[in-house]
Amino acid sequence: MDLTTVLGLLLGLAGLIGGYMWDGGHISSLIIPSAMLIVFAGTFGAVAISFPGSILATIPAALKIAFKQEKRDSASTIDEIVDMATIARREGVLALEQRAQEHTNPFLKDGLLMVVDGTDPELTRQILELEMDAIEHRIDHMSKIFEAGGGYAPTMGIIGTVMGLIHVLGNLENPSTLGPAIAVAFTATLYGVMSANLVYLPIASKIKLRGKELISEMELMLEGILALQAGENPQLIKKKLTSFLHDKSSKKPVEAGADHGEER
């Protein structure tokens, strides 16, 4: 379970509801079934129109990406590739066949099997890059589902509010009920804006981030597979792959510091 996603959602809800109740509001006044139906059903309907069924079917997988923390240990992956490179230099790539067959990572498994089978290095690169592109597009489609929800939800909230106001203005016989009725009407706008900015858009951002992390790890594996296939020195392979660990953590701060230095 990704605690940042769960805690962030709970903290956001607690802040919104707590702030409302702080000023004397009652939580029961925020629960309006008709507004919920208009906003959430309307949003899902708009999203369903926007995407084919094959993409909508990925929603459970998208939620799994957002709410489940996948354990990725790039350092261990590097050590494993270096170990296999050492075996390949000493005994030949055929010695990796059993290990490749039993590997749990499908991307690394496919790459190793192509190396064992003697596939041309350029063809190996093309096949693995196509697989990476397919995964990247799939994750991009997942994030766009929730981005679309974040775009439609506020509009559905406004539609719900307008519909509520139409109902209020059509029943003006009792002026004392106007205030509560208008407040109920505006609850739809609250649902729309709140769900967009606390659920849909943050989940879309989390899915994009997880996708970038996955593609980065696959790029590391790809370079390791090609280096292993080329028979490069295991220590040089380790040095090359270790650079992937520093690309995002070391280089950017250094560059930022250099920029400040130039400005001074």
TrEMBL record:
It comes from Paenibacillus sp. SYP-B3998. This is Flagellar motor protein. NCBIfam families: PRK09109.1. Residues 7-89 form the Motility protein A N-terminal domain. One of its GO terms (biological process) is chemotaxis. GO terms for cellular component: plasma membrane. The chain crosses the membrane at residues 35-63, 151-169, 181-203. It is a multi-pass membrane protein. Keywords: Cell membrane, Cell projection, Chemotaxis, Cilium, Flagellar rotation, Flagellum, Hydrogen ion transport, Ion transport, Membrane, Transmembrane, Transmembrane helix, Transport.
